[in-house]
Amino acid sequence: MYALGALSQHEARAFDAHLHEGCQVCHEELAQFNQLVGALGTAAEPVAPPAYVRDLLAVRIEREVANASTASGSVIRFPEKQPPVSLPQVPAGSKVSSVLPWAAAALLFIGLAYTFMSWRSERQSLRAALDQERAQASATSGQAASLEEELSVKNSLTEELSQINGVLSSPQWRIIPLAGLDPAPDASARVYWDVQGNRWVVTADLPPAPQGKVYQLWFVTPTAKISAGLIKPDKRGHGFSIVQFPSSAAQLAAAAITLEPEGGSEQPTMPIYALGKAS
Fold first, then answer.
1. Does residue 83 belong to any structural domain of this protein?
2. Which backbone phi and psi does 117 adopt, to 5 degrees?
């Protein structure tokens, strides 16, 4: 590009400074390119001019001669015909011809390098856009999951309040509050007892159960402890269940919640987490 004069002024000055630093490799390559550029103008075969060009030239020469004769009174002889000048031919095995394939390869390499840089820049832009879309999709997905969980909690709360209102609307009902004991002093629960319908609606706030453990509700009578089912709190620690009060459980003394192995137990095996007396 420097040999062809196609560089900008800034680029040409930078290359000139580099040459003045004495880089032998660049000097040799520039000399080869200068020979190549000089040979490009002489590489074409000479072409004879059209016949009318010679006639026009002869008419102009005669006009110039006549004007000169009128001015000085002397006659200028028509110049003798000169033999055609042949352009120098570039030998097939010259150094220039050996440079041509190398120059073509260099130009091809430059083109490939430019294409590669453009492709890499475009690829980086596409990757950045894709990462941004993925981040937005992830944020949207997280928001959707949060909204879905919030909706599930609200639906569960609505169902819980509906069941409690159903008990409180019955002809005969009772409430048994359960307080947390030593294993979980902050635990609490309530049993809404539909006495006529033999139905319990139980709400409880309990600490997260350890891995492999589950909370179990018990009907406690003076002579037995009868399982009333499992309570599975959500992520907030809030549990809600509906159980049938057994008609055989006479003289209920209390309601209790214990922590049992996964699947529950036939009889309480762990300390009581919450307890409430029935009377």
1. no
2. -65, -40
pLDDT tens profile 188-197: 999 999 998 9
pLDDT tens-place string over residues 125-177: 888 888 888 887 777 777 777 777 777 778 888 899 999 999 999 999 999 99
Domain count along the chain = 1
Helix (H, G, I), strand (E, B) or coil at 194: strand
Question: Residue 255's closest CA among 167, 160, 161, 189?
Answer: 189
Q: H/E element holding 120?
A: helix 95-168
- Whether 194 maps to a domain, the answer reads yes
Q: What is the CATH number of the domain that holds 267?
A: 2.60.40.200
Distance CA 19, CA 256 (A): 95
Q: CA 227 to CA 239: how far, in whole Å?
A: 17
For 128, counting Cβ atoms within 10 Å of its Cβ (0-12 exposed, 13-18 middle, 19+ buried), the class is: exposed
Residue 203 · residue 157 · CB < 8 Å = no
DSSP state of 252: -
Q: Is 221 within the bounds of a domain? A: yes
Q: What is the pTM of this model?
A: 0.48
d(CA 229, CA 204): 13
Angstrom distance (rounded) from CA 257 to CA 81: 128
